[in-house]
Amino acid sequence: MKFIQTYNVIPTLPEELLSLRELAYNYWWGWNADAFNIFRHIAADLWTQCGHNPIRFLSMVSQERLKELTGDEGFIYHLDRVRASFNGYMQRKTWFQNRVKNGQPFQVAYFSAEFGINEGLPIYSGGLGVLAGDHLKSASDLGVPLVAVGLAYHQGYFRQYLTQDGWQQEKYVENDFYNMPLMLMRDEEKKPILIEIDFPGRKVKAQIWKIQVGRVPLYLLSTNVAENSPQDRNCTAQLYGGDAEMRLQQEIILGVGGVRALDKLGLLPAVTHMNEGHSAFLGLERIRYHMEHDHLSFSEAQELVLGSNIFTTHTPVPAGIDVFPPDMIEKYLAPLTSKFGISSQEFLGLGRVNPADAREYFSMAILALKLSARTNGVARLHGRVSRRMWQNLWPQLPEDEIPITHITNGVHVNSWISAEMSELFDRYLGPRWLEEPGDQKIWERIAGIPSAELWRTHERRRERLVGYVRRKLRQQLVNRGASGEEIEMAAQVLDPEALTIGFARRVATYKRATLIFKDIERLIQLITDKNRPIQIIFAGKAHPHDEPGKRLIQEVIKIARRGEMRRYIVFLEDYDLNCAHYLVQGVDVWLNNPRRPLEASGTSGMKAVFNGCLNCSILDGWWDEGFNGNNGWAIGRGEEYENKEYQDQVESASFYQILENEIIPLFYDRGPDNIPENWIKMMKRSMTSLGPIFNTNRMVTEYTEKFYIPLMQRLNKMKDNDCTDVRKFAVWKAKVLSAWGGLKIDKVQTLTEKEYPVGAELQVRAAVKMGDLTPEDIQVEVFYGHIDERQMMYNTNSIPMEPEKDSKGSKVSFVGSVPCTQTGNHGFTIRVLPKHPDLAHRFELNLVAWAG
After folding, report:
1. Do the beta carbons of residue 634 and residue 627 sit within 8 Å?
2. Contact residues for 330 (Cβ-Cβ < 8 A; gap 6+)
3. Contact 794/786 with Cβ under 8 angstroms?
4. At a CB cut-off of 8 Å and minimum separation 6, what does 72 contact?
């Protein structure tokens, strides 16, 4: 039957327990163990059954139990303590307040297609979303004035289950947002706030849900409203579901709709941060906004937006980039871009390497790159990979000068560390380890933790992991219709005292889940060694359309079902945040063996670090900069191969060698007290060396110091005096672009000597034909470096040259000097760049004139 009105029923709580509702609607409880336990204290089994969703949980707790709790003095004391802790957290002075004293207020908007906040909010698929969730939590801890924008997927990401023969199947479960910690944004008349987005021949409406993540609000857009057609209501149904057109629709809703939602809420930000390219259309909507509200031209508004946009790329290969046919882009974006006053070719050129190539697809990453003042990869190695991947956008620049930097990912420590390890750190590191996780001196106190206490803490978590695996395996066997004998065997899998290896992540071919099976007979010998056994736990989902990934899962299942392997190899279905917590908190070794350099960062190994788990990994992603030789193990030395089969042979053999000769002996080398002292020393070295670096507090601090604050200051300057600076800059930029073809390096002096002693300075002079430009418009530089065997320069540097006095007119002479600091064969050349104080970066105009 069709309803005529709607209403929402909320749990009835006794007055003494009303603060439970306030706590439930702020995900702070998810990273505060005391707050998490307040819900578990009420009804532990029901808390687990509800998937740690506090709103649904409170609606299912009986009124009798709630009344009983009002008379439980211990519970009321616990609740009061948690409420005081929450209030203290929300009201205390933060790092950002100390950093920006009396500064001009500003706001950063962080856009992401997915957010992994908690397992009870399934709007994430994997690492990208979990990283986004941790970013928000650390922004909250630090007090960074940030809001976040995403999509409210009412079916979320798929739930995984396996058939009898181990083939992955997908099912989608409806998210009941009214029974989750989400608040529907309403206007003064209590009606849902709606925004409109233009689709071909129609307008699509979206409502806005709010999630509170500590101090940070996260706004999620949903098209599942009555005003839309059934087709449009499903636009935000599934994360990464549907075809290319559905993907484009979602990205328009996220980027264009997200900016409109913030505007409607009165939260228009100074700086926007795109977590991957899915939200790149936000740049276009921001341009439209400034054209209308600040009465700017397209080029003027573009400068304002470009100077306050940040793009974080997570993709190391072009195949991972969203691209769309030009006709599809025009079909959907015409209503927006028609207001820009530019041609279709100019608009499509914003998403192309070659703007003149009408056949080239429109790339979301290129749009983000062209509309951002700052772009970064997510690890040091990934920064290099990204510069190489996008060098064709800056063909006149050396690879190491491509304007893409890196800020290495981290994890939110308090979300991932076990309660037991956290309590141990409280005792021996003091309370500041959580508030200041980047302080190296605090982490050095780990050396003072008694070995026996650290080992017992870790062993308890391994025991809990084994119990969790047995329960989960039993349930998945029941769901699969397994025999009674198989189901009973679930209680016997894994040994709580055996060396346990974890491998859990998205199942993709480049991550090589089955590399460990390359020499199966050798593995069987290691696994079935009665004196020094090992066991392996696998988990992960393949994308629904990734057939090779699904075959990898099937291969793992096939091997895990072999008689001699059944007790020692387990694959856990439907990998989620809850499962991840048990794994990173309980395994002894975290295995990661991607094909270098295809792992942008990876963060699962970081989560393991804070729980005393040791990493064994290919030198890729974060481990390329995290490994120091004595804080874990490296498979290989950072080699890259063209022959994949050969690579698998070499690296699997390397892993077996490490496992047999280093990992297993170190783990089972026990003293009279049965404690592996040398293993514990490596645990301590791992936590001490990696803990201060690979956390999101350090990461968000870097984003704030390097990106957020400088771009906010630049935006304020450009907008002062009715955008006077941005108007002048747009005029200057147009002049330079028009006149650049008339500029030429006419003559470079010939060296009089071929050898110069260390300490000398090489004097260089160059004459530049200015055309319609002035010396103030350009920067002339000496570009110099060593020369390699291919007659190419490396270890390059540049030094500015100055115009000679009295050198004027159409040809200006510039002079500079190059220091001779190292011996060897060197070379130099001359180049000219545009120069202006308001450039977002020195290569913004993508203009370079080289000598010769």
Report:
1. yes
2. 344, 348
3. yes
4. none
Question: Residue 771 — left, alpha, or beta (φ > 0 → left; ψ -120 to 50 → alpha)?
Answer: left
Rg (CA), the chain: 29
Q: How far is CA 367 from the centre of its chain?
A: 19
Asked if 376 and 388 touch (Cβ cutoff 8 Å), the reply is no
Burial (CB count within 10 angstroms: exposed 0-12, middle 13-18, buried 19+), residue 724: exposed
DSSP annotation of 750: P
- Nearest C-alpha neighbor of 664 from the set 568, 461, 462, 527: 527
CB 224 within 8 A of CB 237: yes
pLDDT tens track for 831-851: 999 999 999 999 999 999 999
> Can you read off the two tokens belonging to residue 729?
């800059």
DSSP 393: G
**Average pLDDT of the chain?**
95
Measured CA to CA, the distance from residue 783 to residue 797 in angstroms comes to 6
Beta pairing partners, 311:
274, 375
**Residue 597: is the preceding peptide bond cis (ω within 30°)?**
yes
Distance CA 548, CA 38 (A): 44
Contact 532, 664 (CB under 8 A): yes
Tokens of 416: 């991932």
For 393-436, write each residue's pLDDT tens digit: 999 999 999 999 999 999 999 999 999 999 999 999 999 998 89
Tell me the three state secondary structure of residue 26: strand
Among 409, 411, 410, which residue's Cα sits nearest to residue 378? Answer: 409
Helix (H) or strand (E) holding 718: helix 709-739
CA torsion sign, 272 to 277 to 280 to 281?
A: negative
Q: Write down the pTM of the prediction.
A: 0.96
Give the closest residue to 253 by CA, choosing from 153, 352, 158, 146. 153
Length of the chain (residues): 852
> For residue 269, how far is the Cα from the chain centroid?
21
Burial of residue 18 (number of CB atoms within 10 Å: 0-12, 13-18, 19+): exposed
Distance, CA of 695 to CA of 437 (rounded, Å):
7
CA–CA distance from 776 to each of 396, 625, 742, 773 (Å)? 22, 41, 16, 8
- Residue 285 CB-half CA count within 13 A: 23
Are residues 113 and 276 in contact, defined by beta-carbon separation less than 8 angstroms?
A: yes
Tokens matching residue 470: 């047995």
Residue 566 burial class via C-beta count within 10 angstroms: exposed 0-12, middle 13-18, buried 19 and up: middle
CA distance 306 to 289: 13
Closest of 465, 504, 445 to residue 688, by C-alpha = 445
Concatenated DSSP letters of 271-330 = EEEEESGGGTTHHHHHHHHHHHHS---HHHHHHHHHTTEEEE---SSGGGS-EE-HHHHH
CA 584/CA 185 separation, integer angstroms: 36
